[in-house]
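1st attempt posting a full record on here, be nice pls
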Amino acid sequence: MKNKNVKWSGIAAVITGGLILSSVSAFAVPADNIVLSGTIAPVNTVAVVGVVDVYNLLDLKTTQTGLKVADVLETSNDFIGYTVTLASLNAGVGTQARLMASNIGNGHGVNYSITYGPGAGTGVTLVAGQAEVTNSNAPTSEEGTANNLRISYTGNSFLNADTYSDTITLTIAAK
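the predicted structure (as tokens):
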């Protein structure tokens, strides 16, 4: 008896499955679509690494020309491109980068010029304390674009005893 019931229940399952499939196909549309998408986050970074024992131990007694003080790596995946702006804190709204004494009463300082770019770089002209040093109409490679930050100044062996410094800020922005 059991075999008969199993046989009939199997036949009923096949008939029921056939009815379901035929009813699904009766409601199917002739074409449909699916939208596939993914997102890549924007990457705009600038990494500045000072040359060890150079950027923070400047020999202010000796004239320096094209002294490499930092390695800079620009990275951007913006297909329109990106810009990098350099700013000197002590230049303020002026055109002259300057190493200022930490003691406010000390009137001495050291004017310096900046070059930026691969190899020896290109001279940087500050306007209102800043300059655009990169203007690219394309993204960088995944590895980024390497540049050198260099400074030049005239040494002075008889500056007032003090610590002289400036802060250079590099800012990257997508176009």
